[in-house]
Structure formats: C-alpha cells, structure tokens
TrEMBL record:
The keyword Protease applies. InterPro entries: Peptidase_S1, Peptidase_S1_PA, Peptidase_S1_PA_chymotrypsin, Peptidase_S1A, Trypsin_dom. Belongs to the peptidase S1 family. Keywords: Disulfide bond, Hydrolase, Protease, Serine protease, Signal. It comes from Ostrinia nubilalis (European corn borer). GO terms for molecular function: serine-type endopeptidase activity. SUPFAM superfamilies: Trypsin-like serine proteases. It holds the Pfam family Trypsin. The gene is Try9. Residues 21-259 form the Peptidase S1 domain. Residues 1-17 form the signal peptide. The keyword Hydrolase applies. PANTHER family: AT26814P-RELATED (PTHR24276:SF91), POLYSERASE-RELATED (PTHR24276). This is Trypsin-like serine protease 9. Coiled coil: none annotated.
Length: 261
C-alpha cells in the first residue's frame, strides 16, 4: 500500500502499491524531486553545509532520520538546521529554508536506533514545482518488503568508506535483504534489528550501498519512499547491509506530525 500526501490544502489518496552513494550513479533532482539535502551549522559563522538527506512530505514538512538531529543523546538546536530545496547539488543552487521545528518519533532510542525517524518543519512554505520540488509518495501501513526486491538509495553521501561526499545527487540499485539473515549478522555486533527496520544492500558482494552522508535520505521502490536510511556498520559492506527505518511502520504518525499546527 502506498500513501500519497499532497498538502497545499491537503489531499490524501490511498491505493495499492507494491554521503555520494557508494557504487551508484549520478542522477538529478528531476528524477527525485522529493529529495532534499539537510544543512547544518557546525559553528563556523553563518555557514551551513550538507549533513543528511530528507524527503519532502508537504510544502512545509520533510521526513528524515531522528539520529541526524542528535549529538550523542543531546538534541541539536533547531536553529542549527536548514533545508535546501530544488537542487541536484548539496552545497549550491535551489532555495534554502529555515527549520523551525524538529519532531523525532517519541519512541526514538539514541542507543538502539530503534524508531529512527523524524519530521521537520520549515518556517516558510516551500514552493513545490513539478520536476523540481514535489511531495513524495510514502509507503502505507500495508506495504510489504519482498526479499531480493530492487530498491534505490538516494543521496549525497560518500562514494566509498574512504571517499569524498558527492557534490551531485546520486542513486544506487540495491536489494532488500532477508530480515532474519540481517538480524543474525548484526547480532554478532550486539545490535538488534527490529521489525521497524529493513536491511538493504548487495549481500555477500558489497561494492554498492548507502553510505555516510546519505543518512536520513530515502529508500525508494518504484518512486515510492519505503525507508529512511538510519545507519550501517561500514559503507557498502558485503556482510553488514544498511539499516533503514520502515516508513510503513510510522505512516499514521508521519501524516499527523506533518500536518500538525
């Protein structure tokens, strides 16, 4: 099931549906007009640089991972964040919007990274335009992941564990990993893969995957946002796939938070 949220006065339709990215290919904002870079100020004057990715939900709401907005267990000040809209480039072009609210899921755990999802709100409405900045279609409650199905990670993260972050948006074709296999491998590290998470990568091969700097960005299935990249042990690792938060586990909370006054 997929949920399309188009809010300029809002409409909800329910219907049936199905870092530079490591090993990926360059793409453009016209292919993923719902994806945005999230910028942070590290304290160097008024300079904001790329830190995470996000997904446009409405003309003033963006979906990302909660962990993007925490330093350890301490939440970042809202004033530290901006959203760049309508650009293929992480540090140029488009329009920058001030963030005035960050709402992590109330059950987010900074230790286990369970429920790693957040909705941020911009102070002023974003100008949504076809092919430039659009509200995403997100997975509904009934969405089911199929083992080995092709999905795409999208973002500006690293191209490899030691590589640079990409200036231009990229995407990578990866695969949904068997949940029990993923959970078993991460249990070796003492990490619990819960039912609110989904694993994606190129198992036992590596080379491709989501990487540092892609955090908070979408996992996409046929144009629908089905996951939010949370973390991975190592970029494009052959043994440990990337962990994404399952969007369908939070559809009701996402919608309610996105439209809250």
């Amino acid at each position: 099931m997929k949920l399309s949220i188009l809010f300029i006065g809002f409409f909800i339709a329910l219907c049936k549906g199905d870092g530079r990215i490591a090993g990926g290919q360059p793409t453009s904002i016209s292919q993923y007009p719902f994806v945005v870079p999230l910028l942070t100020n590290s304290g160097a004057g008024n300079v904001f640089t790329h830190a995470c990715g996000g997904t446009i939900l409405t003309n003033n709401a963006v979906l990302s991972s909660a962990s993007c907005f925490f330093t350890g267990t301490v939440a970042d000040p809202v004033s530290q964040w901006r959203v760049r809209v309508g650009s293929s480039f992480r540090n140029g072009g488009g329009v920058i919007f001030v963030v005035n609210r960050i709402t992590p899921n109330p059950n987010f755990n900074t230790g286990t990274l369970n429920n790693d999802i957040a909705v941020i709100r911009t102070r002023f409405n974003m100008n949504l335009q076809p092919g430039v900045a659009e509200a995403a279609t997100i997975a509904g409650v009934g969405y089911t992941f199929v083992q080995n199905a092709v999905v795409y990670g999208v973002g500006w993260g690293k191209t490899s564990p030691t590589g640079d972050w990409s200036d231009e948006i990229r995407h990578v074709e990866i695969f949904v990993v068997n949940q029990q296999t993923c959970a078993g491998r991460y249990s070796e590290l003492g990490f619990s893969v819960t039912n609110n998470m989904v694993c994606a990568g190129w198992l036992d091969v590596g080379v491709r995957g989501q990487c540092e700097g892609d955090n908070g960005g979408p996992l996409v299935d046929n144009g629908m946002v089905v996951g939010v990249f949370s973390w991975t042990r190592s970029c494009a690792d052959y043994w440990y796939p990337a962990i994404n938060t399952r969007v369908g586990s939070y559809t009701g909370w996402i919608v309610a938070t996105a439209i809250a006054s």
